[in-house]
Amino acid sequence: MRATQLYAPTLRETPAEAEVISHQLMLRAGMIRKAAGGVYSYLPLAWRVLRKIEDIVREEMDAKGGQELLMPIIQPAELWQETGRWDVYGDEMFRLQDRHNRNFCLGPTHEEMITALVRFDVRSYRQLPLMLYQIQNKYRDEIRPRFGLMRGREFIMKDLYSFDRDEQGLDVSYRKMYDAYTNVFSRCGLTFRAVEADSGAIGGSGSHEFMVIAESGEAAIAYCSVCDYAANVEKAELKPIQQMHETQMSLIEKETPGTKTIEEVSAFLGITADKTIKTIAYQTEKGLVLALVRGDHAVNEIKLQNKLGCLQLELASEDAINTALDCVPGYIGPVGASNVTVVADETVMLMSNAVCGANSRGKHYLHVNPGRDFKPAIITDIRLIQENDPCPHCGQAVKTARGIEAGQVFKLFTKYSKALQATYLDENGKEKPLVMGCYGIGVSRTMAAAIEQNNDEHGIIWPAAIAPYHAVVVPINVKDNVQLELSEAVYSRLQSAGIESVLDDRNERPGVKFKDADLIGYPLKITVGPKTINEQLLEVKVRKTGETTFLSLADDYITAI
Ligand code: ATP
Ligand code: MG
Ligand code: MG
Ligand code: MG
Predict the structure, then answer these.
(1) So what's the pLDDT on residue 556?
(2) Segment among 164-173, 202-211, 446-455, 477-486 with least mean pLDDT
(3) Which residue, 70, 111, 316, 391, is the most exposed by fewest CB within 10 angstroms?
(4) Cα of 410 to ligand 4 centre, how many Å?
(5) What angle do CA 538, 557, 44 make, to 5 degrees?
(6) Cα 150 to chain center, whole Å?
(7) C-beta neighbour count of 340 within 10 angstroms
(8) Residue among 419, 486, 522 at smallest CA distance from 513
(9) ipTM of predicted complex
(10) 157 lines ligand 1 (CB under 6 A)
């Protein structure tokens, strides 16, 4: 590629709207342009990087037996109604209607679609296990799209779904994907950690997030350098701190009768500290009801899809679930039973969108009437794990870091297959639900994360595997024919050796070209100037280390590169 032809309109100034470095640098390097909040065009340099990440992802998915397909982005509401998620998904779902007023959404994820796809065609245990994936745009109307490609409303995701006969099979598939993800992020040249994760809104239990370590990361992780423990700090353990006595409860009732706001209830429960999540457990006649409440509203907004931002009920039995569901509408007012999904067999989760989306300032407790609806039993406190807290596995002091969630793997078990009646016949001819897992990688977010992790004051420093080009050849003066011819020769030798290169044949001052080269972040910069002509030496500078070497034109400099 010649720089005179390359469509990479670089900017000298940092656009004011860009808060994080990856967003600033992608705008400045002429890689992306904004179409609307959270919606971007990928220019040629960005598209090359994205395709490289996609290729790595494809190779690793295929290596584990994944088969690529492509499902529609437009999804009919009926599918989502079958699993109950049409109501549950909330404002994050982009919804649309066709000319006949039929409802559709733009796929934020594809569990429903893929389960409906395989339920017709997978009949027998002989067809299992099965792993299907796609790489495609996803649509989520995030409340706060920001940080460029990190939190877009249209973004590229790889999503793979596994189908197994039983939980042992799921364990195998899950392990394969965990390993594949480790390979993907290692091959992309990223420093990352797989951490135990909250299984969040998608459901299921058993989940890991792959966190690219970067200061700008929205997630906090805790890890132990002695054992292998690593977790999203929000997957904190419950630590009972206090029994709630009847008298305290009646006090709430007495002093603030009727409808309560979270502030009122918080005042009694002492929920004030920023990083504290309170769990209130209510003993109902038939089981234990556990409600998570978070005092920190700002975090609520960010974590809408997260356990922390929502109300969770953990129940002992099916009876208890029913009891709780009966209680729910009176308990949180605007949320109805249709907003409840069964996450795992013993857990019911109220989706955060319904709870906080409508009341994003934390008024979960509208119309709460604990005396009437529930009898309080225990209060427990979850404190987020902090630096130097004892490791839950080995007791050594944990460390903390910030991370960008670039991927996540989930065990879904039979949540979707049961809801959508996706079954198979086992060896004995018995009908069983498919046991599922789902596995996502944010391809466009991974590109941004790579920049967050690899940059300096001059620009991007691409890991070689995902760099848009490996090298740039810069003739100091293109008006000097000898320099230009030599540059052409070097460029064509690089190209034929498979080193993807750009020849900066623009009639610009060398300073301008060097600045652009650093900004765009080519791993190698090869300068052709008077020294090259006079001493027959090519100057090769490594972007990452700043190290400069001079290679003799007489030698096999391509191999040396
Ligand atoms: P987050 O916690 O950041 O909102 P998520 O947990 O909702 O992400 P998943 O449903 O696990 O996301 O989707 C799989 C992957 O898709 C994520 O790990 C992330 O890399 C990517 N992703 C999710 N939301 C976005 C977004 N708005 N913009 C870009 N990438 C995203
Ligand atoms: Mg999300
Ligand atoms: Mg997440
Ligand atoms: Mg996730």
Answers:
(1) 80
(2) 202-211
(3) 70
(4) 9
(5) 80
(6) 9
(7) 23
(8) 522
(9) 0.99
(10) yes
Helix axis angle for 443-453 and 44-63, nearest 10°, is 110
Q: How confident is the model at residue 203 (pLDDT cuts 50, 70, 90)?
A: very low
Which amino acid type is present at position 353?
N
Which neighbouring-strand residues pair with 68?
133
Structure-model confidence comparison of residues 98 and 233, the more confident one:
98
Tokens of 18: 């860009």
Peptide bond between residue 129 and the one before it cis (omega within 30 degrees of 0): yes
Which pLDDT tens digit goes with each residue over 136-170? 999 999 888 889 999 999 999 999 999 999 999 99
Averaged pLDDT for residues 360-368: 35
Looking at residues 459-483, what average pLDDT do you find?
A: 96
Q: How far is CA 126 from CA 163, 165, 167, 429, in A?
A: 12, 9, 16, 12
Q: In what order do the strands lie in the sheet with 288-294?
A: 239-243, 375-383, 276-283, 288-294
CA distance 112 to 49: 30
Cβ 3 vs Cβ 30: under 8 Å: no
Quote the CA–CA distance of 396 and 391 in Å, as a whole number: 5
For a mutational test of ligand 1's pocket, the pick from 139, 208, 299, 405, i.e. the residue with the most ligand atoms closer than 8 A to its C-beta, is: 405
Residue 296 has pLDDT above 70, yes or no: no
Q: At 508, is the pLDDT very low, low, confident or very high (cuts 50, 70, 90)?
A: very high
Sign of torsion over alpha carbons 104, 107, 109, 111: positive
Q: Which of 302, 307, 316, 317 lies closest to 279 in space, CA to CA?
A: 307
Strand, helix or coil for residue 289:
strand
CB atoms within 10 A of CB 208: 23
Beta bridge partners of 348: 313, 342
Give the integer Cα–Cα distance in Å for 413 and 207.
Answer: 12
Q: What is the DSSP letter of 124?
A: B
Q: Give the predicted TM-score (pTM) of the model.
A: 0.79
Enumerate the β-bridge partners of residue 163. 130, 436
Query: Letter for the amino acid at 190?
Result: L
Pocket test for ligand 1, best of 94, 235, 408, 412 (most atoms within 8 A of CB): 408
